[in-house]
């Protein structure tokens, strides 16, 4: 199973970006899908996640500004980021808890996409 993330880029403060992450491979099911980020010199942190049941969780720093959604038919998760701030600058990684067709559990990470917010 692989995750392919896209949608990062350079945006001015107050702007918006939408990240996408598509899972591919021999997938039986996907439980939680989410986004993490890592800023220079900092540890990777959770940004948002969504379960297959539709529950969501957000970091306090992005509540009210970011939304997460998923298209189960496409095995894709989206992160809509509004009112971006310079402190949102980081490499964003998607993550998924997957069950393959071999019925093995795998936690999978995408390759990361850079989001840069200029002041």
Describe it.
It is elongated and about 50 Å long. It is built from no helices and eleven strands. The protein has strands at residues 2-6, 9-12, 17-24, 27-38, 45-50, 56-58, 66-71, 76-81, 90-100, 105-109, 113-118. The strands form two sheets. Strands 2, 4, 5, 6, 9, 10 and 11 form a seven-stranded mixed beta sheet that branches. A four-stranded antiparallel beta sheet has the order 1-3-8-7, with no helix packed on it. Strand 5 (45-50) and strand 6 (56-58) form a beta hairpin. By secondary structure, it is mainly beta.
Question: Short description, anyone?
Answer:
By secondary structure, the protein is an all-beta fold. The chain has strands at residues 2-6, 9-12, 17-24, 27-38, 45-50, 56-58, 66-71, 76-81, 90-100, 105-109, 113-118.
Which class of secondary structure composition applies to the elements? mainly beta
- The chain-level mean pLDDT equals 96
The level of helicity is: under 10%
Distance between the termini: 37 Å
Oligomeric category = single chain
Number of strands: 11
Question: What count of helical segments does DSSP give?
Answer: 0
């Amino acid at each position: 199973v692989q995750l392919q993330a896209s949608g990062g880029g350079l945006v001015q403060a107050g702007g918006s970006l939408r990240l996408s992450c598509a899972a591919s491979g021999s997938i039986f099911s996907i439980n939680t899908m989410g986004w993490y980020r890592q800023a220079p010199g900092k540890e990777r942190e959770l940004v948002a996640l969504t379960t297959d049941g539709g529950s969501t969780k957000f970091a306090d720093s992005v509540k009210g500004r970011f939304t997460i959604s998923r298209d189960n038919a496409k095995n894709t998760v989206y992160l809509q980021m509004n009112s971006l701030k310079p402190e949102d600058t980081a490499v964003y990684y998607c993550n998924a808890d997957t069950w393959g067709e071999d019925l093995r559990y795998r936690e999978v990470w995408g390759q990361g996409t850079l989001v840069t917010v200029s002041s």
